[in-house]
Amino acid sequence: MEEYIELNLGFTKVQLLKAGDGYIQMDAGYKSNVKKYLRLLKKQNIDPKAIKLIIVNHAHFDHVGGLKALKDISNAQVLVHENDANFLRKGISAEVKPTSFISKILINLLPNSLKFFDPVEPDIVIKDEYSLQEFGINAKVIHTPGHTSGTISIITEKGNAFIGCCAHGFPLRINSGLPTIAQDIEQVLSSWERIIKEGAKKIYISHGKPVNINKMKKILKKKRSSPIDLS
Ligand SMILES: [Zn+2]
Ligand SMILES: [Zn+2]
Q1: Which residues pair with 7 in a beta bridge?
Q2: What distances in angstroms separate CA 109 from CA 128, 167, 169, one per listed residue?
Q3: Model pTM score
Q4: Which of 5, 93, 119, 217 has the highest CB neighbour count under 10 A?
Q5: pLDDT tens digits, residue range 72-98?
Q6: Helix (H) or strand (E) run with residue 46 in it
């Protein structure tokens, strides 16, 4: 049986997947969320030292701001895609590009200081695909670019997919769907196609409720039949 736990840090959610006698975690949340994270972890009776690997969905401050602190507390390894690795090493958020009017306003409201976070030297840097078997789970990480060029997702053998910001939900948009911030929305669509092809059935994201796979397929079909209109 596949077991996963979601910790709701507020704006960002992080997910933990049972892997052998420990856990694999997607993302680390904001820097200011670290205390809340540790509280929620304790509530679940999980020792931070049980976290063996933290997978970076992508190098934006709301996903990696707390990473340095969490890595130090847990001793977990950090896995990132090569395209986002240097942002992590430098402690600078990857470029942010709005795809909607609302996200444009949101981005403009963000203070500049949020761009920066404590740098982290990754332990594992991947390209297209990476098996998580060695960590005791039948799952893999795949490259799903678009939100940033180094965005990655976890897909388990049973079809649970943890895709971070490959899709967005509330409060970035009312219902979960295409990301409202993306460097390349065409790439997002291709990544969605890959996620589905890899056998995803349940899609968990970082901001908002899970995305219904049938809704994803419908959006894809619509977008692919009218490639000019990508709003
Ligand atoms: Zn992001
Ligand atoms: Zn995010």
Answers
A1: 14
A2: 34, 21, 19
A3: 0.94
A4: 93
A5: 999 999 999 999 999 999 999 998 889
A6: none
